[in-house]
Amino acid sequence: MKYDVEYYQNLLRIHTHTAIQINAIRWGFLAKIDFNHKEITVLDYGCGVGWFAAFRPKAPKVLTVDTFDIMPVPQSGIVHDKYDLVTFWDVLEHIPDFTEIKPVLDKTDFVALSIPIKPPCMFWDKWKHFKPGEHLHYYSVELLEALFNYYSFDLMVDEMPECPPREDVHSIIFKKREA
Question: pTM for this one?
Answer without folding.
Answer: 0.88
